[in-house]
Amino acid sequence: MDDVAPAPPRWRLWLEAARPKTLTAAAAPVIVGVALAAHAGQFHALAAACALAGALFIQVGTNYANDAEDFVRGADTDARKGPRRATAAGLVTPGQMRAAAAVAFGLAFASGVYLIVRGGWPILALGLVSIASGVAYTKGRYALAYTGLADLFVLVFFGPVAVAGTYYVQALSLPGWVPVAGLGPGFLATAILLANNVRDVEEDRAADKRTLVVRFGRAFGVRLYTHAISGAVVVPAALALVSRDHVGILGASALAALAGRRYASTLATSTDPAVLNPLLGKTARLLFAYSLVFAAGWLLT
Questions:
Q1: Helix 150-157 crosses helix 121-136 at what angle (to 10 degrees)?
Q2: What CA–CA distance (Å, rounded) separates 81 from 240?
Q3: pLDDT tens digits along 90-121
């Protein structure tokens, strides 16, 4: 009889399915939004904490929903190059994973109740749209990840929307430059998605998952990744130039330029999953470090 690997403990299974490495994409723009508000003298600890909790729960809910729906649609199979997915591995049923996603989205809404009371209907609308987008990311006939719209969704919601929302729930006002600052983390969050889609292009094509990389080719995906890194370099430089202040944020530009160039070269020259799988984590860590450096540079200069 063949040996069968024991199933992981339930808590570890759900933690793995939450994809902890991707949670930096949710936390990073909140960090930037908090720093911008704090420098303006508008820091609000409870609002900031609720914004962070809501962002993390939405990301977890999206990851759980993605785990179930990609399996149902046939995008996650035994040929998958990336890390194990719980539903595809038979460790949970699609129904159980969808229920877990609903719980996570429910916790996200609960985290936002105080923010709705504080910020009014715009925050309610933003929260509902964010949760609905998390569900629609892989579910439905026009799922974002299956129509090539996911990249734009990630850029907008993990960048300007998240940074501006975090700022607004603290300051209850929104200067026009705040969403522009949000483009920096938004570009790097998009780079994480592109690294994933470049790696999975053949499997996605077979599953009719029409990502931008499937639609326009692997080389296009690599170029888009490089452009996303370049965007993250340009945003702090432009803000420092226009404001003639906050020169410390140029450290974020330098970090993105140095690390991003290496990562883009790796993506362009390798198709080995053993090389590309760590690239996702490296890009996620770059996003987190970039946001910390941006936040510190804004606060200290």
A1: 150
A2: 41
A3: 899 999 999 999 999 999 999 999 999 999 99
How far from 127 is each of 43, 77, 114, 121, 130, CA to CA, in Å? 21, 33, 12, 10, 5
Q: Tell me if 232 sits within 8 A of 248, measured CB to CB.
A: no
Q: What would the two tokens of residue 260 be?
A: 């991003």
The tally of CA atoms less than 13 A away on the side-chain side of residue 84 is: 13
- C-beta separation of 21 from 281 below 8 A: yes
Residues 6+ apart with CB under 8 A from 9: none
Question: Would you give the DSSP letter of residue 20?
Answer: G
276: helix, strand or coil: helix
Distance of CA 222 to the CA centre of its chain: 18
Q: Phi/psi at 207 (nearest 5 deg)?
A: -90, 5
Pull the structure tokens for residue 88. 């595809």
- Of 276, 249, 272, 251, the C-alpha closest to 264 is 276
Distance of alpha carbon 42 from alpha carbon 34, whole angstroms:
9
Mean pLDDT per 10-residue interval, the chain, length 301 residues? 61 90 92 97 98 97 93 74 82 94 97 96 94 91 90 95 97 96 97 95 90 96 97 96 88 96 96 91 96 96 83
Please state, in angstroms and rounded to a whole number, the distance separating the CA atoms of residues 105 and 111. Answer: 10
Helical residues (DSSP H) of the chain, grouped into ranges: 10-17, 23-39, 45-73, 94-119, 121-136, 144-147, 150-157, 160-171, 177-199, 201-206, 212-216, 218-243, 250-269, 273-300
